[in-house]
Write a sequence for this structure.
C-alpha cells in the first residue's frame, strides 16, 4: 500500500495517494513497524509538498524523521533530512537550519556511498550558501558537483548546476564565464522539464545583466522569470483544484492522520497521559483529590516498569500538549475556586456574622469573645474576598478585559516603576469570557516579568484591534537582554505564554537589546462573545 500510495503521488493522483497512505499508516502503527510508519509520513508529507502545503509537509516530514531515527534505514533518513532542508531554505528562508538538515542528509548519503544523492544534496547546500552571499563556503560543494556530475549526475540538476556556476563567476567578476553558464542553463532548461530551475536562472541572469549595465536584456529576462513563475503558480493552483474535494478538506485530513496513533494507545498509556496533565492541576485541588492522584501516580509507575519501552515512546508526545493542558486546567480551576469562594464560603461567613450580630443584639450580650468572633469572621470574609479577586478579578468578569487591564496597570504602578495604559479600543468592548481571561493572565504574566527582571522605571501597555486581531505591546526601558541567546520558549516564564499564544493561533515577538529595554508584541485572533 505504501508503494502504491507513492506511485499515485508521482502520477499526480494526490487524493488517492493521501487516502491510501492513511490506510497504510493505520496498519503500520498497528504492527509497530517504525520503518513503515516513517515511510508513510514521508509519502504524506511529499504529497502535501506537491500540493504546495509546505506547513503540513513540514509537520509530517518531522514526524517521519522521529520514526526513521529508530530504524537502520539510512536512505529514508537521507530523504527526510533533505526534504526538511528544502522547506527551511525554499519556503521558510531559514538558511542556517536548512543547511544543517542538508548536511545531516549528506552524512547518510555518504554513509550509503550514494554519489548521485550526494550531488543533489551538495547542489542544495551550494545554492543555499550562494543565496545568502557566502560564496566561499559554497565553492567546495560546487567544485565537487562539477567534478562528479558528468559521471554520477542526471538531467534534473544540470540547469541548476549551470546557474550556480554563473552565480559564482558573477561574484568573481568574470562576466564572460558567468554569461556562458547562464545561457547554457537557459538553453538546457528550455529543452527539459526543470521549469522551476529555469525560472530561477532567468532571475539570477537578470541580476547579472543589471550589475553589468545591460538594462534592456536584464528586463527581458526578468519578464521571462515572472512569466514562468506565474505559470508554475497556476500549475500549483490547478493541482489543488483538480484534487476532487481534498482542497477543502486538507486540515480535516491532517486531523484524521494525527488521530490514528491515538487509537492504538494502550489503556495504560491513556491513563498516564491523563495523570501527567493532572500533575499540573493538583497544586490547587483539595487534599482528597491530591491523595487519589498520588495513588494513580504509583499505579502508573508500576505499569511503567512493566511496559518501559512502550511508555518511552509516548512520553515525548505527551510533552507536546502538557503545557497547554496545564494552563487550561489552571485557568479552569482558578475560575471554579474563585466562584466557589465568592458564592459559597464568602456568603457563609457573611451569614455567620449576621446571625451573631442578631443574637448579641436580641440578647443584649456584648462580651469580648463575641467582639473577637465578629472581628475574626470579618477578617476571614475579607481574606476570602481578596483571594477570590486574585484568582479571578471581579473587574474582569463584570466590566471586561480593558477595565481589568487598566486597573492592573494602576495597581502595579508605584514610586519605583510606572505602568502606562494605552488603548484605542472602547473600554466597554466585551469578548468571549474565556478569551478575556486568557488574555488577562497573559498580560499579567508579562507585567510580572517586567517587575521581576527588567529593572525598568517606565512601562507601557498598548492595545489595538485590527482586522479581528487583538494587538498587544508591552514596552519597558529596563536592562534588556541579548535576543540572539534567547529562545522564545525558554526563560522569564515566557514558555507558558508562548505555548498559550501558539495554541490560540497567535504570534509572539520579543525584541530586546542589552541596556536598551524590551518590547513584547502579541497578535491574537479575537474570540467574540456569543
Amino acid at each position: 500500500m505504501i508503494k502504491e500510495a507513492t506511485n499515485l503521488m508521482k502520477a499526480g493522483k494526490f487524493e488517492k495517494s493521501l487516502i491510501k497512505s492513511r490506510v497504510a499508516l493505520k496498519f503500520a502503527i498497528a504492527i509497530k513497524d517504525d520503518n513503515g510508519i516513517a515511510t508513510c509520513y514521508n509519502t504524506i508529507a511529499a504529497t502535501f509538498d506537491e500540493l504546495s502545503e509546505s506547513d503540513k509537509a513540514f509537520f509530517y516530514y518531522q514526524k517521519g524523521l522521529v520514526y526513521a531515527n529508530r530504524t537502520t534505514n539510512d536512505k529514508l533518513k537521507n530523504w527526510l533530512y533533505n526534504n526538511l532542508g528544502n522547506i527551511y531554505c525554499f519556503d521558510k528562508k531559514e538558511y542556517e537550519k536548512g543547511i544543517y538538515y542538508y548536511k545531516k542528509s549528506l552524512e547518510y548519503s555518504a554513509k550509503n556511498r550514494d554519489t548521485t544523492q550526494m550531488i543533489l544534496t551538495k547542489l542544495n547546500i551550494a545554492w543555499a550558501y550562494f543565496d545568502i552571499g557566502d560564496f566561499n563556503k559554497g565553492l567546495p560543494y560546487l567544485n565537487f558537483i562539477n567534478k562528479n556530475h558528468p559521471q554520477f549526475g542526471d538531467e534534473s540538476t544540470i540547469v541548476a548546476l549551470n546557474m550556480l556556476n554563473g552565480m559564482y563567476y558573477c561574484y568573481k567578476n568574470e562576466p564572460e564565464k558567468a554569461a556562458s553558464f547562464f545561457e547554457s542553463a537557459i538553453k538546457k532548461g528550455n529543452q527539459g522539464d526543470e521549469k522551476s530551475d529555469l525560472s530561477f536562472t532567468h532571475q539570477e541572469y537578470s541580476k547579472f545583466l543589471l550589475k553589468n549595465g545591460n538594462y534592456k536584456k536584464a528586463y527581458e529576462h526578468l519578464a521571462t522569470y515572472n512569466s514562468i513563475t506565474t505559470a508554475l503558480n497556476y500549475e500549483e493552483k490547478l493541482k489543488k483544484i483538480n484534487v476532487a474535494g481534498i482542497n477543502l478538506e486538507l486540515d480535516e485530513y491532517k486531523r484524521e492522520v494525527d488521530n490514528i496513533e491515538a487509537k492504538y494507545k494502550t489503556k495504560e498509556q491513556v491513563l498516564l497521559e491523563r495523570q501527567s496533565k493532572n500533575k499540573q492541576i493538583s497544586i490547587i485541588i483539595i487534599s482528597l483529590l491530591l491523595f487519589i492522584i498520588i495513588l494513580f501516580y504509583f499505579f502508573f509507575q508500576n505499569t511503567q516498569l512493566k511496559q518501559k519501552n512502550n511508555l518511552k515512546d509516548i512520553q515525548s508526545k505527551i510533552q507536546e500538549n502538557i503545557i497547554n493542558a496545564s494552563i487550561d486546567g489552571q485557568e479552569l480551576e482558578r475560575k471554579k475556586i474563585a466562584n466557589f469562594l465568592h458564592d459559597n464560603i464568602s456568603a457563609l461567613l457573611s451569614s455567620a456574622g449576621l446571625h451573631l450580630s442578631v443574637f448579641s443584639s436580641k440578647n443584649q450580650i456584648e462580651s469580648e469573645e463575641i467582639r473577637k468572633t465578629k472581628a475574626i469572621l470579618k477578617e476571614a470574609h475579607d481574606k476570602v474576598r481578596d483571594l477570590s479577586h486574585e484568582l479571578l478579578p471581579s473587574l474582569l468578569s463584570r466590566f471586561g478585559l480593558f477595565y481589568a487591564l487598566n486597573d492592573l496597570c494602576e495597581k502595579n504602578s508605584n514610586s519605583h516603576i510606572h505602568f502606562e495604559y494605552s488603548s484605542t479600543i472602547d473600554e466597554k468592548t466585551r469578548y468571549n469570557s474565556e478569551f478575556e481571561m486568557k488574555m488577562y493572565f497573559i498580560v499579567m504574566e508579562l507585567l510580572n516579568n517586567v517587575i521581576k527582571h527588567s529593572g525598568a522605571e517606565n512601562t507601557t501597555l498598548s492595545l489595538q484591534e485590527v482586522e479581528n486581531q487583538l494587538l498587544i505591546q508591552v514596552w519597558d526601558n529596563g536592562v534588556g537582554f541579548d535576543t540572539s541567546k534567547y529562545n522564545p520558549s525558554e526563560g522569564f516564564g515566557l514558555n507558558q505564554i508562548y505555548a498559550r499564544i501558539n495554541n490560540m493561533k497567535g504570534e509572539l515577538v520579543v525584541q530586546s537589546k542589552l541596556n536598551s529595554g524590551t518590547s513584547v508584541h502579541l497578535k491574537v485572533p479575537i474570540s467574540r462573545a456569543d
